[in-house]
What we know:
By secondary structure, this protein is α/β, with parallel strands linked by helices. It contains 14 helices and 12 strands. It is globular, with a radius of gyration of 21 Å.
Amino acid sequence: MQFDKSERLKKLPPYLFVEIDKAKKKAREAGRDIIDLGVGDPDLPTPRFIVDAMNRAAKDPATHRYSLDQGIAEFRNAASRWLKKRFDVEFDPEREVYPLIGSKEGIAHLPLAFVNPGDATLVPDPCYPPYRSGSIFAGADVITMPLLEGRGFLPDLKGFTHHQLHRAKLIYINYPNNPTAAVCDKKFLKDVVDFAKKHNMIVASDAAYSEITFDGYKAPSIFEVEGAKDVAVEFHSLSKTFNMTGWRIAFACGNPSIIEGLAKVKSNIDSGIFSAVQRAGVAALENYDRHIKPLVRIYEERRDILVDGLKSIGFKAERPKATFYIWVKVPPRYTSASFAATLLEKCDIVATPGNGFGAGGEGYVRMVVTVDKKRIKEAVDRIGKRLG
């Protein structure tokens, strides 16, 4: 039997990475040697000290019961201490820090707490897809904020009509940015906070890549801006920082009223993160300093190999100051989709078409450096020889 899907599902585009996985699977089943520069999933293992902490915790029967949505106090306290150490900002671990089953679900659930059908959200274009899909699930209209190269891939906060601003209840920002790898400074974050206060809207700051930074750049938190806690919530993920994508652990921090709303949604949907994973998260946050610099050095070397290699064969690509993404302009006469298809068909390379992140991504593909440097060199060699 076939059942008709809900209208909200019909409004969603196909989820980008599901489609990429299908293409990869088909190619690999055909016996092809695929180099995957598509999905941002770290190839490096979770650090041993985190795995050991998980093993110890999993053997403790106390972790085998529901942790409930607020999670364990040890994890919230560790997150609060890390935020203080990293950004010099104070958060009450009881009211202003909240565990998430990966930042993706928190980002997508947030509109359900504060946005009514007919309201609007301000969403960057291109963007991480859950900003858009979470808004659609809440019945909101999505007002896109074009991210243009000429503006450093920052949105124009003056580019809205009075009617749009009256309807908008939430603005998503994401720096360091996925997919463009752009970064921002505190001045931009102050402009966002001032904008949100003036128009009475929530700021959702996705900081998943705040720790993957290069060339002396350190990503700021929105809470380094005075008054940000009046309007903002920020999402921090252990996935990329600690190679823990499959563990599904993150946290939100910020305005206690926003945290309370998100918590009410989640308490009706899930029963929290496995307590043993939260204890492993404590070990991760408490050992941040011993882990992060070696990780960044690996990504930095890979970044340089890929960017320099692409430039040597005629592509336009800049060295990003953050993330493990490279935002590459497609050659003339190609669209994002046709170039990604050509890379797969002729070079056995998976890259993500920029238009999969929104219409504003047309003309680009996103490549990742979550494969070892030998494979990155091979990818560049294939492109140069097979498409040259």
